[in-house]
Amino acid sequence: QMQFVESGGGLVQPGGSLRLSCVASGFTLDLYNIGWFRQLPGNKYEGVSCITDRDATTYYKDSVKGRFSISRDNAKNTVYLQMNDLKPEDTGIYLCASALHTRVTSIQRMCQMMYPLYEYDYWGQGAQVTVSS
Questions:
Q1: Which of 84, 95, 91 is nearest to 36 (CA)?
Q2: β-pairing verdict for 127-131 and 10-12
Q3: What count of Cα atoms within 13 Å lies in the side-chain half-sphere of residue 19?
Q4: For the residues of 22-73, what is the DSSP string, one character each?
Q5: What is the pLDDT of residue 103?
Q6: In whole angstroms, how large is the CA radius of gyration of the chain?
Q7: What is the pLDDT averaged over residues 28-45?
Q8: What is the mean pLDDT of residues 12-33?
Q9: In sequence order, what are the beta bridge partners of 127?
Q10: Rounded to an integer, what distance in angstroms lies between the CA atom of residue 9 and that of residue 19?
């Protein structure tokens, strides 16, 4: 079965850090662009950060630039999101998703959810991040 499993979420005080991990099983990551998304009401998603398949080009939404860092280890079939200086507005459910690099060619458009939802091949179940004092 092809799926993602996320881990690393939790409760943290403002200014704290978390590291999310997303491990793929049933397929290899090296042909896929990967993104971290936050779930919004109404079954919608907001792109937080995305990374390309081979050269690891990255994209971040403005509000997390300088605080979050996305990385990947294709040998471990894993993508990470290092989240520093967390703010209460970062609270939410974070999911990773993949998109085949031959179809989804713009990492910025992928992160801005500008491709049809069916182009995002696999989704994780989500990790809860809560930033509160």
A1: 95
A2: parallel
A3: 5
A4: EEEESS-GGGEEEEEEEEETTTEEEEEEEE-SSS--EEE-GGGTTTEEEEEE
A5: 92
A6: 14
A7: 91
A8: 94
A9: 94
A10: 7
For residue 46 the two structure tokens come to 């907001």
Tell me how far apart the alpha carbons of residues 66 and 132 are, in angstroms, rounded to a whole number. Answer: 20
Cα 90 to Cα 105: distance, rounded to the nearest angstrom: 27
Q: Which two tokens stand for residue 131?
A: 């930033």
Average pLDDT, the chain: 94
The pLDDT of residue 87 is 98
For residue 54, the model assigns a pLDDT of 81
Q: At 19, list the tokens.
A: 């590291």
Are 29 and 7 in contact by the 8 Å Cβ rule? The answer is no
Q: How far apart are CA 30 and CA 32, in angstroms?
A: 6
